[in-house]
Amino acid sequence: MTFRKLLLRGLLPAAGALLVTAVAGLLVGAGDVGPARAASVLLGGGDADARFTVLQLRLPRTAVAVAVGAALGAAGAVLQATARNPLAEPGLLGVNAGASFAVVLAIVLGASAATVGPYVAVLGAAAGCLLALGAARLRGAGDDPVRLVLAGAAFSGMVGAASSVLLLVDQRAADEIRFWTVGSVAGRGTEEFLAVLPVLAAGLAAAAAVSPALSALALGDDVATGLGHRPRRVRAVAVSSVALLVGGATAVAGPIAFVGLVVPFAARALVGPGLRRLLAVSVLLGPAVVLLADVVSRLVVRPYEMPLGVMTALFGAPVLVAVVRSSRMPAL
To answer: What is the pTM of this model?
Structure first.
């Protein structure tokens, strides 16, 4: 695919969707500041309440949603290429659950939810990714997408149960950790955004650097070795990039599932299976999906808000069914 086709078929539509959803995120909310008052703020006017709502609440929230969406979209694309499996998604494989459990454990051991750094979630995400992929590859089952999802579901259930036990034991942790049970970008501010930005930037850089080698690995380890790549090192870098991206996203927004499945699926429909093209479009399309889910979550139960993780699950479940039912999947 030429750059012109990539631009017209993938990058421009994804960038347009991102722009529209970002503006909607600034204009729409569950509070009293409606689109007209919010638009006046964006045009340089507006009253004090509207300015506070748009600039101090919605703008940082939108920035966090953009960062989280880009991270999860890229993580999904890299993880699918690493596992050679269209169902390899951070939420389905328990990577999000591993990151959340690491944060829960840190809080139970005495840390505060406000001071737990993103690196704790990164370590949990890395452990979850390695355990799920390792379990799926037992007895040569790593290429079976159904077994991969089952391994991820089993790991997620085990880790979720362990988190519940820890929260039952420590009531203080239960009060602080409710945020981590369902993902949300509500209440996230500039401080949280800046704290995870270096982690997410490092993850995106690693993903971009390893994408050519991962494309070679799709042809087989022998071919990749012949082209000068080292498969083990490539997979290690890929898993590290997924851990950084998912851990950073989970640290700031909690566990948000299905974004890593929906975004590569949509990007693949636009630009085909090439990983570098897929990664470029996913970085733009991921924020659009998260922002859309966030905007809808503000409106469906007004004046309250539905958790973002619940909304992405509602969006993602039909996509999961479509992928499973596609002709590429093995019959059960």
So the answer is: 0.88
